[in-house]
Design goal:
single chain, 227 residues, mainly alpha, 77% helix
């Protein structure tokens, strides 16, 4: 019965996660239609590539058993994040394009180093620990990125730059992954998901408090993938 519930939670987490990852499509429709990245930042999408690649790698059977659903979702997330970065590079100014491309090369180098080290130098639990720790660290950093948005909302008393559905799907996704990790006794899944869940709850509370405030924020700030 536990295995069945574990599988159901994994499938639900994949559904909520896909909805979370397709949320930036609205932003990129605007970028493409105006043929400019304006004041949007491409950094969250590049960092999402590293986080999703590491999660995809960690979920593979030869790294950690019973986590293939972690790989399926994050494989989709990595593909979408690559697409977002390609579109950003196409319409970004020259200086911004160089910065984002350099960051992309750096995170791909980091992923290659981690994956090759885990394959060639480590085995068994050592391999899983390396991949799990790096996966947890970078995904925690990804989930923590909305702290900037939370400060902006509190300062301006406006949720203009914190879309409800992005926060809502993040809450559903991280809550389900937290339960999935607990049921599978996998701290490398439930620690990062628990942090993401807590931050998404804060965002939803702020949305409830300031949802009727129409005061515009003074600074243009891109929410990105994980706001």
């Amino acid at each position: 019965m536990a295995i069945s519930i574990h599988m159901v939670l994994g499938v639900l987490a994949n559904i909520w996660g896909v909805l979370l990852y397709i949320s930036p499509i609205i932003t990129f429709k605007r970028i493409v239609s105006q043929r400019s990245t304006q004041s949007f930042s491409g950094i969250p999408y590049v960092m999402a590539i590293l986080a999703t690649l590491l999660s995809t790698w960690y979920g593979l059977p030869f790294i950690s058993p019973d986590n293939i659903l972690v790989s399926t979702l994050n494989g989709i997330g990595a593909a979408l994040s690559f697409l977002y970065v390609i579109l950003f590079l196409k319409f970004a100014p020259r200086m911004e394009k160089a910065k984002i491309f350099g960051l992309l090369v750096a995170i791909l180098t980091i992923f290659a180093a981690i994956s090759l080290t885990s394959l060639m130098a480590l085995h068994g639990n050592g391999r899983r620990r390396l991949c799990g720790i790096t996966n947890t660290l970078f995904n925690t950093a990804m989930y923590a990125s909305p702290l900037t948005i939370i400060r902006l909302v509190i300062r301006t008393k406006s949720v203009e730059f914190m879309p409800f559905f992005l926060s809502f799907f993040m809450f559903l996704s991280t809550t389900t992954w937290f339960a999935f990790g607990l049921l599978g006794s996998d701290p490398f899944v439930y620690i990062q998901a628990g942090i993401g869940c807590g931050l998404s709850i804060v965002q939803l509370i702020l949305y409830i408090i300031y949802r009727n405030n129409t005061r515009p924020a003074q600074n243009s700030l891109e929410i990105g993938l994980n706001s």
